[in-house]
Amino acid sequence: MKRCSVALSMGIILMVSHVFAESTPSTIESLERQISARYAGVSPAEWGERVSGVRTRLDTDEKVLALTLDACGSARGKGVDSRLMEFLIREQMPATFFINGRWIDANPELFKQLAANPLFEIANHGIRHKPASITGRSIYGITGTKNAAEVVEEIELNARKIEAISGVRPKLYRSGTAYYDEVAVKISQALGHEVAGYSLLGDAGATWKAAQVKAALLKATPGDIVLLHMNHPEAGTGEGIIAAVPELKKRGFRFVRMSDYPLK
């Protein structure tokens, strides 16, 4: 019975995604009205980083890791770890960047350069870096989107911003704080975005020292998605990554973008 209900649920999600993929309205307001109507009266039952529908690993047994680097765009989070960016390019290491709209506004030329580099893929980190909720739930003192319409706005405004600059619409979304309710996840999927969680915490919101980041990365297993940050050059993230990579390569690991493999 459980297997049948899961299949039915996935079928509904795919059907909704197909509808929006085939006939996406031209305005944000139209999308907000349609999705708000679809989820009117629905109450979420889950809240967290690993609710139903969040993809947390690459679906492979190969020795590959996906480094995912968030750029959150807060008042203190609009920087960039230039040394880390130079390292990734020099070592030809693919990565997935989850970029917030405010960070793009603060770093327009750099964003264009990163988006144009085939090593990297640009993913959606929301327009205002809000937790994804249809009830306004908060986490870490950050208030989430208050309803279905705000979820649409948070995702779609940034998706269109990224596409307008880069020419490519993102297919992956991670909310601010990486917290969701399961209805917000379904809305993301309806908007053509898989919700990207993680399996390995890499820097605890850019608060860890380099030695802690290195130690975390050296716990990696095949198919891990690693959550890190690129927007805090003062943090230990970049130094920790740079220190861990040689050992990971010795162990036979390769680095990939999230879209290079199916997700689970």
What does this entry look like structurally?
With 264 residues, the chain is of the alpha/beta class. The chain has a single domain, classed as Alpha-Beta Barrel (TIM Barrel), CATH 3.20.20.370. Helices cover 40% and strands 15% of the residues. It has nine helices and eleven strands. The strands form three sheets. Strands 2, 3, 4, 9, 10 and 11 form a six-stranded parallel beta sheet that branches. A hairpin with a 2-residue loop joins β5 and β6. α2 (28-38) packs antiparallel against α6, α6 crosses α7 and α8 (210-217) runs parallel beside α9 (237-250). The longest helix has 21 residues, at 2-22. Mean pLDDT is 92; it is low at 1-25.
DSSP helical segment count: 9
User: How far apart are the termini?
Assistant: 21 Å
Rg result: 18 Å
State the helical fraction. 40-55%
Present the secondary structure layout.
Blueprint lengths: L1 H21 L5 H11 L15 E2 L8 E8 L10 H9 L4 E5 L1 H6 L1 H9 L3 E5 L13 E2 L2 E2 L4 H19 L5 E2 L8 H9 L3 E3 L3 E2 L8 H8 L7 E5 L7 H14 L3 E3 L8
Parallel strand pairs: 1-8, 2-3, 2-10, 2-11, 3-4, 7-8, 9-10
Antiparallel strand pairs: 5-6
Quick structural overview:
This protein is an alpha/beta fold.
Essential attributes:
single chain; 264 residues; alpha/beta; TIM Barrel; six-stranded parallel β-sheet; three-stranded parallel β-sheet; 9 helices; disordered N terminus
